[in-house]
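Morning F.,

Quick status update on the modeling queue. The single chain you submitted on Monday has been processed. Sequence for confirmation:
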Amino acid sequence: MGGPLLLDTHIWFWLVEGAKREITPRLRRILERAHLRSSLVVSVMSVWELGMLDAKGRIRLSVDCTAWVDRALSAPGLRLQEISPAIAIESTRLPGQIHGDPTDRILVATTRLIGATFVTRDDRILKYALHGHVKVLDARR
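Structure tokens below.
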């Protein structure tokens, strides 16, 4: 994988938390190589989603949410991708049939517009990618 890798929220969370059971050895090697090339990307939408999951008690962070995000985003080799007007509009005009989850739509639009590969386990997005609308790395393998 030569280009940037946009991490789905769950992948970013597992990577930062060191969830070895969730990150396969193959995926870990790919992410380490991307890290060395400074090619790991996290969308600001994932920051929002992580905050919502924490607020609802659906995940447990090792520290306060703000501190967790600050630490996670300061990791070398990782960059934060903001939501531009172009990404916002693209998310409303994605080709093919994709579900209506706004977070996933923003992440897919971001992936497409920055020329990245989306790293995810989300079955709906993996199926969407089979039609060639977005480049993905299946994190289940």
